[in-house]
Fold:
Amino acid sequence: MTALEFLYRTVPGRACLKILTRPGLSRAAGRFLDTRASKFLIAPFVKSAGIDLTEFDADNFTCFNDCFTRKIKPGLRPADLSPGALISPCDGLLSVYKIDRDTVLPVKQSRFTLPALLDNDPVWREFAGGTALVFRLCVENYHRYCYMDSGVKNDDVFIPGRLHTVRPIALETVPVYTENSREYTVIDGEHLGSFVQMEVGALLVGRISNHLTGSGRVEKGAEKGTFLYGGSTIIALLSENTAKIDDIYTENSSKGMETPVKYGQKIGKITEIFNERERIK
Structure:
C-alpha cells in the first residue's frame, strides 16, 4: 500500500489527512522548502521526476523551492502571440469541457459545479454555454504560468480551503477542486473578451504566487505567477463562441483522456466574434 492509498483509503489515514491538509501545515512545509536546509532534497527530486536541468537556469539554487520554481532558459517556452491563437497558460495535462447552465464538470473522479468552484460568485453565469479548460500540472512540470490574452485584469479573489493532492486517488474520495485553496481573476481580454484564470493549490502547495494581485494591464504570454511545491491545477473559463479548441483536445477529452500541453503553446483559435463586436462599436 502506498502512502497516498493509506491516506485516502483507510480510516486512520483519513484522520491523518485532516491534519496534513490544513493550510497552516502546508505553509510550514513551504517555509522549510524555502530554507538552505532543504537543498538536500533537490538531487533526489530531479532524478525521480526525470527533469533535464540543462533546459533551466540552474546555477544558483539556494533551496528546494528555487529548483521547483526554476526559470526556463530564454526561447524554450515561446508563447504564440498571434492575435488569433488561443494559448495554454502552462505545462500540464489538458481536459476540455462544454459549460451548460448548472453543468457538473467531471475532472477525473471528482465533480463540481461552477458556482461551487467560484464560491458562488455570480460571475459564473457569464460563462454558461462557454468552455472550461482544466490544466493539471504534475510535480515534474514547469510550475510557472502565463496570461492567455492581453487586456486588463481585475483584483485577484482568494478562496481559502484545505489543500489536497490532485492525483486521481484523492479525486476518488474528496471534492478536491471545491475544498482546495484557490485564486482567480476575471480578465477583460483584448481578443477573448471576459474570461477567468484560476489557480488551484494542492497538497504542500501553500502558496499560489501571482505577481500582480490587484487590477492592471497584462500582456499575453507574460508570466502571471508560480506554484510552489506540489501538483497543481489551472482552470480557464471562456465565454460562449470566443474560441474553438483544436480537435485533438476535445476528442481526447470526450474519451476521458488528458492531453499534454506546454506553456504558451497554441491549443485553439480565438474566433472573430469578439473582435468584430469591438470593430462595430
The chain is about 25% helix and 30% strand. The mean pLDDT is 81. Residues 3-68 form one domain.
